[in-house]
Design goal:
Layout (H helix, E strand, L loop, with lengths): L5 H6 L7 E4 L3 E5 L7 E7 L6 H7 L1 H18 L5 E3 L15 E5 L8
Antiparallel strand pairs: 1-2, 2-3, 3-5, 4-5
Helix pairs in contact: 2-3
This protein binds guanosine-5'-monophosphate and zinc ion.
Guanosine-5'-monophosphate binds next to strand 2.
Length: 112
């Protein structure tokens, strides 16, 4: 756990969140400010600053994140979704504990 990391505190249960899925490797919870009908954040239990850091230090956690993202989409939005990792403040990353945004349902027009 990293001191003063919001998502480490959610993983530890110190800050409440609307949990969608939990297992040994990941937790997933609804974004507090949803940008799509389905907007769930999938995070590894182990702190890492971004998705590449998870891949380098805990690839099994990244694999578990991918499986969880699909499970969430299967449950909530017909199995189809975008999976977005903002990486760096200049492109909008605001929480520096890796997280994939699972976005599904009717989406606003997107840049990709
Ligand atoms: P980023 O901009 O870093 O890719 O995504 C961070 C996301 O975390 C944002 O979409 C934001 O709405 C969400 N978020 C920020 N604080 C909280 C919180 O306390 N609880 C939850 N569930 N989501 C949060
Ligand atoms: Zn963290």
């Amino acid at each position: 756990m990293s001191d003063d990391c919001l998502f480490c505190k959610i993983v530890a249960g110190e800050i409440p969140a609307d949990m969608v899925l939990e297992n040994d490797h990941v937790v997933a919870f609804r974004d507090i400010s949803p940008k799509a009908p389905t907007h769930v954040l999938v995070v590894p239990r182990t702190h890492a600053a971004n998705v590449a850091a998870v891949a380098a230090s805990a690839p099994h956690e990244l694999a578990a994140m991918a499986v969880a993202a699909q499970q969430i989409a299967d449950d909530q939005c017909g199995g189809e979704y975008k999976w977005v990792f903002n990486t760096g403040a200049s492109v909008g990353q605001t929480v520096f504990h890796a997280h994939g945004h699972v976005l599904g349902g009717e989406l606003e027009e997107s840049i990709v």
